[in-house]
């Protein structure tokens, strides 16, 4: 325990004298500090209203100078610093600006203390200077507390902001957005209410929808993407600007390792719910585990099938029942041949190249398909029925 000396008592007396005088000049000191801060810091001028700034400085100076007059347990300067810091974080003031204001306040406060003693007891200035370290230490303590409170509040606000952004994006994608919510979402997401948008849905192979391990681009050229996790896939809202869906498809290809569905273009945020449903429909037309990108406009017949599974099931049973009744190996040979034939637009030569067999083998299998189904691949209506029935077999779950 230290021993109090007469000089220590005299320093305390001088400090209390000066503090008492400064408290009488508090409005004047507040004016000076506010003016110096706002003159040198644009962030304060833009983000902190003048009246708010003046009041918080007044309270901080009152508590800071008043701390000299009270015992340590009764000091409230640190609590005041924390309160101000939380408010500045909410206003978006940079923390550098906040901490710079404490340096300015230290100068103003110290100049005020020196001015009082110079006027009233100039011979005591050497004693006052001995207390300089304590004064600056007190201001540093307030600044440290303010910085800590600012970081904590900023983290809280960031979390809430992120949650709000995600909830607004969910509302748009779930088609729950009225005009007011669309305006709020546009502001929060920094997106135009009216613009050319598409929605992308992706599913990775064998992940059961858990796609978070794969990095997703936030932009592709001039296109901007906002990604959102869904229970069984990922979804992205894409602001296309002047690009077309074809450019989006090409740009996405290096990033898609599973399946993806892309909606047609819609003309604003209010239509994202419909675009999301169409993108999901496109994704459901992907038969394998990828990589495969399905644009809805290229998969409309298959999309009709997956959107009406009960009716499509009846169609496949009515058209392909004799083939589906065969043993698995024979069934897959005929269905695979039909699929290759349709994909190759009726070219036996091209189909044979894909199936690694002779073109006559393809012709023989096609004739057998026609005999079993009673349909002819020379009749357009029969081709439509066979195409839709084949899509139903490939895309719908087996009952």
Automatic annotation (TrEMBL):
Residues 177-285 form the CdaR GGDEF-like domain. Residues 27-164 form the RsbT co-antagonist protein RsbRD N-terminal domain. Coiled coil: none annotated. Gene3D superfamilies: PucR C-terminal helix-turn-helix domain. Residues 334-392 form the PucR C-terminal helix-turn-helix domain. Belongs to the CdaR family. This is PucR family transcriptional regulator.
């Amino acid at each position: 325990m230290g021993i109090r000396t007469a000089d220590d008592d005299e320093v305390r007396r001088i400090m209390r004298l000066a503090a008492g005088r400064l408290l009488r000049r508090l409005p004047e000191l507040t004016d000076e500090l506010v003016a110096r801060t706002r003159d040198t810091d644009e962030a304060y001028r833009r983000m902190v209203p003048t009246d708010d700034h003046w009041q918080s400085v007044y309270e901080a100076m009152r508590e800071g100078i008043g701390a000299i007059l009270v015992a340590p347990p009764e000091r409230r300067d640190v609590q005041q610093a924390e309160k101000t810091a939380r408010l500045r974080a909410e206003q978006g003031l940079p923390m550098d600006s906040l901490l710079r204001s404490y340096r300015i306040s230290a100068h103003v406060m110290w100049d005020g203390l020196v001015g009082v003693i110079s006027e009233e007891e100039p011979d005591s200035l050497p004693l006052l200077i001995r207390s300089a370290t304590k004064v600056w230490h007190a201001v540093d303590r307030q600044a440290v507390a303010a910085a800590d409170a600012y970081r904590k509040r900023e983290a809280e606000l960031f979390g809430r902001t992120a949650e709000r952004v995600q909830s607004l994006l969910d509302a748009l994608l779930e088609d729950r957005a009225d005009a007011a919510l669309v305006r709020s979402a546009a502001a929060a997401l920094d997106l135009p209410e009216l613009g050319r948008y598409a929605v992308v849905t992706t599913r990775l192979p064998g992940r059961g929808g858990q796609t978070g391990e794969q990095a997703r681009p936030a932009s592709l050229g001039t296109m901007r993407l906002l990604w959102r996790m869904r229970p069984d896939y990922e979804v992205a809202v894409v602001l296309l600007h002047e690009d077309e869906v074809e450019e989006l498809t090409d740009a996405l290809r290096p990033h898609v390792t599973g399946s993806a569905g892309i909606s047609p273009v819609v003309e604003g945020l209010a239509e994202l719910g419909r675009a999301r449903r169409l993108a999901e429909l496109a994704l459901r037309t992907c038969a394998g585990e990828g990589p495969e990108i399905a644009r809805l406009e290229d998969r409309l017949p298959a999309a009709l099938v997956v959107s009406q599974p009960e009716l499509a099931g009846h169609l496949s049973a009515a058209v392909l029942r004799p083939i589906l009744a065969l043993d698995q190996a024979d069934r897959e040979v005929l269905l695979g041949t039909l699929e290759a034939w349709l994909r190759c637009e009726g070219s036996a030569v091209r189909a044979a190249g894909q199936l690694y067999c002779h073109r006559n083998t393809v012709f023989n299998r096609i004739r057998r398909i026609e005999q079993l189904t009673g349909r002819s691949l020379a009749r357009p209506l029969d081709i439509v029925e066979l195409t839709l029935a084949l899509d139903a077999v490939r895309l719908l779950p087996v009952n």
